[in-house]
Each structure stands twice: as C-alpha cells, then as structure tokens.
Amino acid sequence: MRGTHKLALCLALLIVPGLPAFAAKSSERSKQKAQAEAQRAELQHKLEQLKREIDDTEEAKSQASDALAESEAAISNADRSLHDLEQEQAAIEAKLAKIIKQQEELRKAVELQKQKLARLLRDQYVTGNEDRMKLLLSGDDPNRINRELQMLGYVSQAQARLIASLRANLAALEANKAATEEAKDELDDIAEERLQQKRVLEHEKVQRGQLLAKLSSKLTA
C-alpha cells in the first residue's frame, strides 16, 4: 500500500513541473487561432465588399451601356429628322424659286399689256373722235355703226380686264410667296433646333462612352 502512494507521489512530482509549459503552449495556440479567425473574417469581409463593388460596377456598366445605346438611337433619329427637314427645305426652296420666276413673268406680261393699252388709248384719243364722226356720218347701217363703236370700247375694256386679271394673279403669287417664305423660315428654325439637340446628344454620347470605358477598365483591372 505504501508502495502505491510512493508511486503516485513520484508521478505527481514528474507532471507538475511540465504544467506551466503546456499551459503556455495552449494559450499561444488559442491566440494564434483567434488571430487566424480574425484574419479570415477580415478577408471574408473584404471579399464580400469587393464582390459588392464588382456587382455595382457591372450594374453601372450595364446601365451605361444601355444609356449609350439610347444616345446612339436618339442621334440616329435626329439624323433622320434632319434629313427629312433638309428635303422639305429643298422642296420649299424649289417652290419659292418657281414662284419668283412666275412673278417675274407676270410682271413682264402686266407691263406689256399696260404699254399696249397706253398705245391704244393714245390712238383712240388721237383718232377716236374722228373715227366716230366718220362712222356717224357714213350713212351705213345704224346697227353696224353701233357695233363698230362698241368694238372700239370693247378693245380697251378687254385690255383693262386682262391687266386686272394679271394684277390679281400677281397679288396671289405675292401672297403665296409670303406664305412659302414664312414656312421656309419656320423650317430653318426647326432645323437649327434639331441640330442643337443633335449636338447635345453627341456630347452625351461621348460622356457615356467614356464612363463605359472607365467601368470596363475597372472590371478588368
């Protein structure tokens, strides 16, 4: 029995000196484990943050790509609109040139008729009374005399009506020209406004393209 106690005492004496070293090693391992877990948690946090940034960047890139496509479509529409306006302007300018030509022709016709009427009135003034007296004193058929006298009046009246008609046509052309010029001015204003809009769209396209390139570079970095 005494031998058993002695053996236990000896074992205790052997173990007790090693306890402090074992405890120190265990504490160091716990510290290292805690540091490793903290580093792992920090790394996990950074990875999650990076993933969120990548997701945000990809979403921003997608939005920028869509915006760039919208800008290109808007510019294409603006180009078509400007092309249509240019065609309308060309048609109106051709119409205006035609009206101006017609006006010039009518002016010449009016002047020619005025000259003819002036000569007719002058001739009638010089010889009209004499012709009338000759007709009245000719002894011819009174009906024929009346017809001749009426014809002299009809000629000048016809000339006057023709000039009045030409002047009316000229006035109508002037009104048409004014309306055409007004339409042309309006088209010019619209074209200028559309051109300004296109310039703004092109500027936006450049900015969106630069943003898209920056985001793409960020994703591949």
Concise overview:
The chain has 3 helices and no strands.
CATH architecture: Orthogonal Bundle
User: Structural class of the secondary elements?
Assistant: mainly alpha
CATH class: Mainly Alpha
Order of SSEs: HHH
Strand content: under 5%
**Total tally of structural domains:** 1
Euclidean distance between termini CA atoms: 79 Å
Q: Write down the Rg.
A: 54 Å
Largest sheet: none
The percentage helix is: over 70%
Beta-strand segment tally: 0
Q: CATH homologous superfamily, by name?
A: Methyl-accepting chemotaxis protein
Which spans of ≥5 residues are poorly predicted at pLDDT below 50? Answer: none
* CATH topological fold name: Helix Hairpins
Number of continuous helical runs: 3
On the 0-100 scale, what is the average pLDDT?
A: 72
Basic shape: rod-shaped
Description of the structure:
- The protein is an all-alpha fold and 221 residues long.
- The chain has a single domain (35-220), classed as Helix Hairpins.
- 96% of the residues lie in helices and 0% in strands.
- The chain has 3 helices and no strands.
- Helix 2 (19-137) runs antiparallel to helix 3.
- It is rod-shaped and about 155 Å long.
- The mean pLDDT is 72.
Tag the structure with descriptive keywords.
single chain; 221 residues; mainly alpha; Helix Hairpins; 3 helices
What are the SSEs and their pairings?
Elements lengths: L1 H14 L3 H119 L4 H79 L1
